[in-house]
Automatic annotation (TrEMBL):
It catalyses: (2S)-2-hydroxy-3-oxobutyl phosphate + 5-amino-6-(D-ribitylamino)uracil = 6,7-dimethyl-8-(1-D-ribityl)lumazine + phosphate + 2 H2O + H(+). Transmembrane segments: none annotated. Pathway: Cofactor biosynthesis; riboflavin biosynthesis; riboflavin from 2-hydroxy-3-oxobutyl phosphate and 5-amino-6-(D-ribitylamino)uracil: step 1/2. Belongs to the DMRL synthase family. Keywords: Riboflavin biosynthesis, Transferase. This is 6,7-dimethyl-8-ribityllumazine synthase. InterPro entries: LS, LS/RS, LS/RS_sf. The gene is ribH. The keyword Thylakoid does not apply. It is an enzyme of class 2 (transferase). It comes from Sediminihabitans luteus.
Length: 155
């Protein structure tokens, strides 16, 4: 999927409670995603931030569900899954994607999707918000989640 066409989103998250659920595989990329998310939360004026680490992306939905059911106004899910030589990649990606979608739709709490699903580590580094990265998917996931909280207020 190309990053071309992404909107520039300006968000005001003052007063919101945001929980970041973050997997732990692929440390360097995760460090970039987390730093990008923290920067975007600060720019948006979100003071009430919790960060919860889980082992892998497969565990993101259950943590997101707990956060959504216990007072978070928005959840941001961060993870990195890199394709290997077995079908495991497809299963972990599908579990994370479907699980996070289910949490969001079922609870009504927006979940920002900052899970990178990449063929190799370089693709992940390019999107990690690190020096030299082309994109910052941690920040984008925060901005999307907060923008959706604001959009839902009008419905
Ligand atoms: C097992 C596994 C593998 C092979 N690769 C990744 C990965 O690239 N990214 C990731 O976030 N998690 C990976 N995992 C771990 C699973 O998400 C999960 O934590 C384990 O299967 C234990 O439930």
């Amino acid at each position: 999927m190309s990053g071309a066409g992404a909107p520039r989103i300006e968000v005001d998250g003052a007063g919101l409670r945001v929980t970041v659920v973050a997997a732990s595989w692929h440390t360097q990329v995760m460090d970039g995603l987390l730093a990008g998310a923290r920067g975007a939360l600060e720019r948006a004026g979100v003071a009430n931030v919790r960060v919860v680490r889980v082992p892998g992306s497969f565990e993101l939905p259950v943590a997101a569900a707990r956060a959504a059911e216990h007072g978070a106004d928005a959840v941001v899910a961060l993870g990195v899954v890199i394709r290997g030589g077995t079908p495991h990649f497809e299963y972990v990606c599908a579990a994370a994607t479907n699980g996070l979608t289910d949490v969001s739709v079922r609870t009504g709490v927006p979940v920002g999707f900052g899970v990178l699903t990449c063929d190799d580590e370089q693709q992940a580094l390019d999107r990690a918000g690190l020096p030299g990265s082309r994109e910052d998917k941690g920040a984008e996931a925060v901005e999307a989640a907060i923008a959706t909280v604001v959009a839902l207020r009008d419905l």
